[in-house]
């Protein structure tokens, strides 16, 4: 086991960046000593080497973390030497014209956010939503653009206030999609975040995608107390609850919500998001949803159909 200083020395990744990758993406999960110090094993060292190799080959940190967590990139056991970073994973292929356009659209959005220009930010969002249907852009363009805001913040180019302003603009767009899909007479699914969790873009995008499938959805928003979850599920008698788990710090609170809803005998309980791992997954009807919003919406719609 290695301290964060030793992990930094063995991987060439600075300690602040290691902590940022843990906090924002949940891609590394160190153990803790009784006094609270982080400890990293060899498997985590390999993850850090893979993250470094991917980001140095042109991937954004959010895309690299998503691919590693989804198992799309193999985290091989590599020798800890100077050649390890270059050989940990294959270099990214040359981008296609579509990928180049996508990257340019994301850069435009992040640049607008960094300049704190509401006009440019709205124009960039117009370009994103004009690129295709909601289902075509949400996973491959909109949410990666939002994740790129986090990368910009980690790099020190984007202030917290500017990130909040850009995220609020995205929330307004997603809320419009959610509202335009129609208001159900009675919700079948309740969607929200656990207590203390505030990163709601993925959960709101999921709620909008599910409503567009003609599934009745009630979106609760961020930072919902355990009692609040129980009260709403009791009143609505919804058949499914979906809890967003975006940050590693959200897991404990999400587990409390899951326990309370299992006691309530909610038929379908699901967790989704970048930090929703196996420790939260399937017992007593629990489901671990795919990371992609459209696939997650399809999974819940199918589950409701089977129980319908």
Task: Provide structural commentary.
With 308 residues, this protein is of the alpha/beta class. The chain folds into three domains: 4-87, Multidrug-efflux Transporter Regulator, Chain: A, Domain 2, CATH 1.10.1660.10; 97-178, Methyltransferase, Methionine Synthase (B12-binding Domains), Chain A, domain 1; 182-307, Rossmann fold (3-Layer(aba) Sandwich). It is 55% helix and 8% strand. It is built from 13 helices and seven strands. The chain has helices at 4-11, 15-25, 42-56, 61-69, 84-87, 97-114, 118-129, 134-154, 160-180, 201-211, 226-236, 251-263, 293-307, and strands spanning 31-32, 38-39, 189-192, 217-221, 240-244, 268-272, 286-288. It has a five-stranded parallel beta sheet with strand order 4-3-5-6-7, sandwiched between helices. The chain is globular and about 55 Å long.
Notable characteristics:
308 residues; alpha/beta; Methyltransferase, Methionine Synthase (B12-binding Domains), Chain A, domain 1; Rossmann fold; 3 domains; 5-stranded parallel β-sheet; 7 strands
Write the layout of secondary structure elements.
Elements: H1 4-11, H2 15-25, E1 31-32, E2 38-39, H3 42-56, H4 61-69, H5 84-87, H6 97-114, H7 118-129, H8 134-154, H9 160-180, E3 189-192, H10 201-211, E4 217-221, H11 226-236, E5 240-244, H12 251-263, E6 268-272, E7 286-288, H13 293-307
Parallel strand pairs: 3-4, 3-5, 5-6, 6-7
Antiparallel strand pairs: 1-2
Helix pairs in contact: 3-4, 6-7, 6-8, 7-9, 8-9, 8-10, 9-10, 10-13, 11-12
